[in-house]
Amino acid sequence: MTALRRAQRPFDLSRRSLLRVGGLGMLGLNMPMLLRAAEQSDRPPARAKQVIFLFQWGGPSHLDTFDMKPDAPAEIRGPLRPISSVVPGLPVSEHFPEMAKRMDRVTLIRSMTHTMKNHNSAGYYALTGHAPPSDDQRLRDSLDLWPGYGSVVDSLEPNRGEMPTYVSYPYTISDGSVTPGQHASFLGKRHDPFFFKNDPNAPDFRLPELTLPSDLELDRMQRRRELQRLVDQQSKLLERSAAARGFDDYYDKAIAMLTSERVRAAFDVQSEPESVREAYGRTTYGQGCLLARRLVEAGVKFVTVYFSSSIGGRRVNEGGWDTHGFDDTRMYEIVDKYQHPITDQTLPTLLDDLENRGLLDETLVVWMGEFGRTPKINKNVSRDHWPQCYTALLAGGGVKRGYVYGASDANGMFPDKHPVRPEDLAATIYALMGIDPETEVYDRGNRPLVIAGKPVTDVFA
After folding, report:
1. Which of 67, 70, 109, 392 lies at a CB distance of 3.0 to 4.6 Å from 368, suitable for a disulfide?
2. Domain residue ranges of the chain, discontinuous segments joined by +
3. Fold type of domain 47-206+267-402
4. pLDDT, tens digit, for every residue of 111-169?
């Protein structure tokens, strides 16, 4: 069973200190009132009601997107030119003419940094805000590793009712082995995301998980469920196995979703006007971002959209951002035709759509990969892995508009000021959601673990 507590601070009343009071009244308050007051005192103000986490698997080049170096030597600055944006002194890649018009809505953190050079290790770090035990492409999923952000949110601030707290799609990402950090890990199965692999861009997009079999009536299914409960209780399975309890809770949540018109309506992306669907782009990622808007609008708190299932690298019409340059393809041939055009269509449209619907101020959008690319271009006219310095983009949800935090050095190699670790970005996300980054959860060994690092409060609006 998952447990949690707020870290005690010297300047406020903690739950632990209040419990020492016992049943005594204090300042005219009874114990439940005191506990609620202490719980609230630990909480930062919630600026974001929900998060859309756009994970750019493979690692976009910061030097070819949002941290260009036009004054650097040719082997550093690359072939792409910077163009001016609506924010003076904040240029972007020439491939991003639409994003250039929206840079007054975003915050850039240009000093992200860590040391994990392999995709699986760096991907896990980016998805959880916790460093992996080793920098290894073969890093495998384990209940000793951390859960993803959305699972932590589901553990600490779950939705009440049928709407899921955490939804992720449409890929399980991997590089050799499945990348850890995509589910609830030691928090338990009940906090896993609602995950699906169906393509939101498919003409017949639907979720079989939300549809009853044609020969199974709802009351019949519920009777079966009650029978299963009796069997479980008789065998004392639930008392013996925390994992089984997690599956039981997960099953209950699935039934609640299955019978909810509100949930089915949220996933009905085909009900959107054709003009809106075209604006997002008729790609899996584009329609996935449109679906993300529908989900947060319906009350889902955390949505993770994976750009691609693979890190990419060889083809010009699919895959992620891992553009080393192989065979007859080169980095700039790939991003010119695929990653950059999709990004410059979908990301601006998502920001516009959220803004127009009055959702941007309460929805935090995070766009980032697991690392950046090498400042120096390699022999294949491409860039390799570079975790020492890269950029994360944030928008809405209580962050400043048209703002840059931190800086890279002249060649984009290392942070020049205000380095930000993934732990700190995690803390920033949680704090914006009103979750104290010093909150502790318990692992399988019942050890208390702090969920994140220190929030970058300078980016708060």
Report:
1. 392
2. 47-206+267-402, 208-265
3. Alkaline Phosphatase, subunit A (3.40.720)
4. 999 999 999 999 999 999 999 999 998 899 999 999 999 999 999 999 998 899 999 99
